[in-house]
């Protein structure tokens, strides 16, 4: 888990969106992102990361574990959380 701190408008959300490959089309970025020494070419390895936005958009009836399991099932297959 990573905590990114900064003043309002300093680019925290933009940084995280860039790392997650979720920037709007046409936004220019400079630099290089690597994962374990290898270029990720604009995409983050899905097995090792997740992007959780600022707004809480989950089903209140589900536990955290059930929510993560459901999301993983939609985007990556079965998941077992311990």
UniProtKB/TrEMBL annotation:
This is ABC transporter domain-containing protein. It comes from the Eukaryota. Residues 2-67 form the ABC transporter domain. Keywords: Transport. InterPro entries: ABC_transporter-like_ATP-bd (IPR003439), P-loop_NTPase (IPR027417). GO terms for molecular function: ATP binding; ATP hydrolysis activity.
């Amino acid at each position: 888990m990573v905590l990114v701190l900064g003043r309002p408008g300093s680019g925290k959300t933009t940084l995280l969106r860039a790392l997650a490959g979720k920037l709007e089309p046409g936004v220019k970025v400079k630099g290089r992102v690597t994962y374990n020494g290898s270029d990720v070419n604009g995409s983050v390895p899905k097995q090792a990361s997740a992007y959780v936005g600022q707004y809480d958009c989950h089903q209140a009836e589900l536990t955290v574990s059930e929510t993560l399991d459901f999301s993983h099932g939609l985007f990556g297959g079965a998941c077992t959380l311990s």
